[in-house]
Each structure stands twice: as structure tokens, then as C-alpha cells.
Amino acid sequence: MASSSYEPKNRFLRAFNQQLPILSLVHGSLGAGYRAPKNLNYFWNFGSLAGLCLVVQILTGIILVMHYTPHTSLAFNSVEHIMRDVNYGWLLRYVHANGASMFFIVVYVHIFRGLYYGSYRSPRETLWFLGVIIYLLMMATGFMGYVLPWGQMSFWGATVITNLFGAIPLVGDSIVTFLWGGFSVDNPTLNRFFSLHYLLPFVIAGVVILHIWALHIPGSNNPLGIDVKGKQDTVPFFPYYISKDALGVGVFLLFFAFFVFYAPNFLGHPDNYIPANPLVTPPHIVPEWYYLPFYAILRAIPDKLGGVIAMFAAILILFAMPWLDGSKARSSKFRPLYRFFLIVFLINALFLGYIGAKSPDDVLSLGGLDISFLTLGRIATFYYFLFFLVIVPVVSRRETPLPLPKSINDYVLKGGKSAPAE
Amino acid sequence: MKSLFKVASPALVVGLMLGLGLSATAQAAGPATPNKKVEWSFEGPFGKFDQAQLQRGFQVYKEVCAACHSLHLVAFRTLGDKGGPLFSEAEVKAIAAAYEVQDGPDQDGEMFARPARPSDKFPGPYANEQQGRAANNGAYPPDLSLIAKARADGPNYLYSLLTGYYEAPADVHLNPGMSYNPYFPGGQIAMPQPISDDQVTYADGTPATVDQMSKDLAAFLMWTAEPKLEERKSLGFSVMIFLAIMTVLFYFANKRVWAPVKRGEDI
Questions:
Q1: Chain CA centroid to CA A202, Å
Q2: What is the per-residue pLDDT across B40-66, written as a single tens digit (0 to 9) for each?
Q3: Cis peptide bond prior to B34, omega within 30° of 0
Q4: Could you tell me which residues are beta bridge partners of residue A36?
Q5: Rounded distance, CA A12 to CA A199, Å?
Q6: What is the pTM of this model?
Q7: Any CB–CB contact under 8 A between A299 and chain B?
Q8: Which listed residue (A233, A288, A325, A399) is catalytic?
């Protein structure tokens, strides 16, 4: 960030930059004035990709709003008006709907990258907290956005999720009435969700700026998890990481475009093409895929209030990571035992997502053994919390890390190249 | 597509695992009997609607389904759109004119009926849901505009349902007025077998078997649900080519930019 020394060559730009040093700011945060470790691997692409997703969502969203009507009797048809009558409306909507899924995929990889390489450790705790806040805001925004088309899953998803707050003792019912703006999910609910769905992305953008600011104070972590010792460990952000991020953007957009153009409804639910009907409950209410692991945790706990607490705790516990992890090394690369449990945690989290999509009564048959998804959900939920509350604190303090390299440059010169993905 | 999947593997793993979960869900809510599979012309990255099939499917809708099912999101004009049945302008006008819609109020404050124009949408058979239920033994025939996307594996499901009316097995107890159809969730459907052989006479001479009509209708309903399918896939192809070339250029540019670092030079 420290690049006040930047001097544009053009004298008008120089004068402008003296009066408003915005060129210095860009130079110092995305340009040659900002240096990043030279060994960042492709996992470090996902931050810029998340930023791209936010921009795509805001741009497509602003245009969609020009044609959308937030009213219970008009919302569904206004979305179909976008799909049928608005020029490239189908493209805007499919990009926006799939863009939400892409945003979450990218952010989940980004979060896992942070967990794997210890990016939450000192001196980056604030950076990590801001990231968790962004994730929470994304969850809220995505949920409210899914309600807007006012299909069956919109309506019933909104009903199920808002009803969760009814589990809070004493004030639960009042809170639910307050959230709904009435005594059921209805037009006031749709209107406030619309308003907040438009507002929150800009709040996210604000926190993203803080997130990037907080990143630029200590600089990026790296796959070795060791501190930068000097200039020889780093390269200027421009052109090195601008170029590498551009490559990531290309690959990511191919993936994104594949869904938009060839499988636009794959990540959605068919029931949301049925207009909301408060009198007909769908046989199986499921949230969007990115909430499924937490939905599974919610249902794993026999008590409603307990389930709600566990679900929120499953996300909020991320805030505690800087204290839970007491290892001398940051990166899992040098902590084989911890890495093993972390990979199991990843598989377990994905499995929780699978469980969240199933009905609790469904049965998984393994050979002659029949296990209900409720039981599986409980086992997986147990490991989820065991990992954070026992495995991380104990393993990180007991396991002696492998010897750390002297410096990033030393490691790279010895042929370590950029660290492998796993 | 293989290589694309490879490079995007981290994201793909997450997407697919959760996607699989979702499709499993959709199945759980769907019919007990797996759908029959039809090879549709509109499948695959280069899939296109068969224009003649859409015209035949429209004929089936108009002469059979429209008696009970509305199509209220579809405007007559779209019957002439590229990527659709592509009726001529005169044909679209004639199709629309055969329907009557309510308009008004006129200068005297009266509502009046007039022949539909291409800009109108298909009027439904019933004034309201209650009327529809009263005429159909309590069951409301759903609007068909989006039905192919509102059911998992839509076109195959519709084809299976339409050709899936069988004699009820001895152990199935049918409620009064219901028909047996193993493809419908629960196996009992309020809609009696809607189409029979030679119920319509196709203008192009295609034999109007139940099988043929079911395919044509399912294809037509896929078009009403996703009228921009052809435009989407053809634009998608250009976008993929563009992105692929751009990504290859980024790859080589990046390789070149990083070459001095890889050689161990001080930067």
C-alpha cells in the first residue's frame, strides 16, 4: 500500500494525482507498487474471482430490477416477462441466477484456501473476520434473492427459514411477525426482501473494500505460511498477479458460461417454475445448494431451538479459528496430521450438503446395512463440531510441524516451485 | 468439455457433489417410475427445435389440451419467432383471430369481446380457478406455459405421462374419477387419458399416433417453457469459443510474464 512515491509521467495526471492520490492508491494496491509473495498458487486466484462475481451480480441485478416487479401477484410473471420479452433478458437472469451459485463456489474455495494455509492466523485475524462477515452477508443476500421470483420454493423456503427465528424463547413469534411484516409470508415480506436484496450487495462491496484494505497491511499469506523476509521473496502485483488472475478469470468464465448457456437450470429447483401457492406445500422443501450443509445440521438436532443454534454456530465458529489453532506453523503443508483431519472435514462438509438435499427419512444402503440420512446427518454434524472444538485446538498444539523453509525465495530456488495444490 | 472440466476441477467437485444432491432431491419428489427417455432434437450443445414438430405439437395443444389447459404466458406473436414453430405472419394472425379475448372498456364504459391479435396472449379456457375445478371433478388443470421446466426432466416426464396410461394393477385402489399413471407422483391422476390415436389430423401427413403426438406436444411445451433455447445455445457457442481463445492467450501471456521469475531472476 505504501506507494506515495508514485509519480505519473504525464504532468496533468501528476497534478491530478497530487490533488487526489487515487492513481497512487491503484498503483499501490493493484499495480507495481504492491508486492506479493512469488509462490502463490492457483488457490490464490479465488479472491479476485469472488470480486468479479460481486461485480457481475451487481451489474446484472441492477438491469434486472429495471424489469422486475416486487409484488406477490406480479413478481412471477415479471420474471417470465424478463425471460421472454426483454432483449437478452434470459441471459441477464440466467447469469444472475447461476452467478449466485458461482459466487458461492468461489467463496467456498476461497474460505477453504484460508483454512488450509492458515490465512486466518496472526497478523491476518481482522482480514479473516471481515471475510466471515462478507460470507454471512452473502448468505442473507442469496436467500432473499431466491425469494424474489415468487415461485413455490421461493415462498416455502422463505416460510421455513423465517420460521426458524420462531424458535427463540419468549420473543420468537414477535420476531417472525416483524420479519414478515404481517402474520404470514406475503407482500410486505416480498417487498422488504427486495429492498434488502438491493441494499446488501452494496454493504458487501463496502466490507470487501475493508477486506482488501486489511489484506494490504500484512500482505498476502502464501502456501508455505511463512513470513516474507524481503524483496527477493516477492514480485510486483502488476504484471505478475494481474496476469495470473486474468488467466484464472478466463478459466472461471468458461466454467460459468457452461452453466449459463448449457445447463442454466441445473443448479435450480423445478418447483420454482411453479408460481407461489400458500395453500400447496411442495413434497420436499430444500434451500439453494449453498445452504444445504447448514440445513443438514439444523435437521440433525432433535430440538428446534438447538437446531437453530447449531446451524448459526456452524458458521459463527469460523470467527474463533485464530484462537482455536495454536500451531507454530500456519500452512497445513507442514502439518500432515492436521491436514488429514482438514481434508476429512472438507469431505464431511460436502457430505453434509448431500445429506441436506435428502429427506431425513431416506435410507442409504451400504451392503446389508441401512442407515437413515437423519443418523448420517448426526454423525456428520458431530464431526463438523468435533473438528473445530477438539481436533483443531488439540492437534495444532500437539503436532510438531515439519521443518519450515528458511525463506520463500530459498524454497523456490531449491525447486519447490509454487507449492502443489495439496 | 473434458479439458474444461479438468481445469475447473476444484469448483466442479463442489458444484457436482451438491448438484448430484439436488438432482437426487428432484427425483425423490418426482414420479415413482423412472421416465421413458426420448432423443430430443433440442438436446445437446447444438440442439435445435424441429420446426415441423413444434407446429404439430401446437396443433395438438390447440385441438386437444386447450380445452382444459391455459398457456397464459405465451403470446401469439411468438409462434412466428425464429427458434420457435416459425409460422408465417399471416398464419400467426389467423391463429390469433380464431380466439376471442376481452378488451375494454370502450367509450361507453363497456367491456367487449374481440378477435385476438398477435400481441395478445393465449386466453385460458376458464374464467377463474374455481370454474376450472368445478368443470374437472375438483382438480385444476395447470397452466402449461412453464410445465416442461416445472417438472424434473420435463420433456421426458411429459412424454412418459402422456403415454403412461395403463390398466391399473390389481393391488392399486383408484379413487373415483382418477386414472392410473405410474409416471405421475402417487400413481393416480385426475386427468383422463387425454390423447388417442388419430385424434388430430396432421397437415404434414405424419401419422397421428399417441406416441407421435406425445413427442410433438412435449417438444412444443419445451419451447413454450424455454422459447430462447436456440438463441441461448447458439450464443453460448460463440461465447465459449471467444472465452477459450481468450484463455489460451492469457495462458501464454502469463507464461511469458512469469518466465524471468521461473528462471530465478531478481525482480
A1: 16
A2: 999 999 999 999 999 999 999 999 999
A3: no
A4: A235
A5: 37
A6: 0.92
A7: no
A8: A288
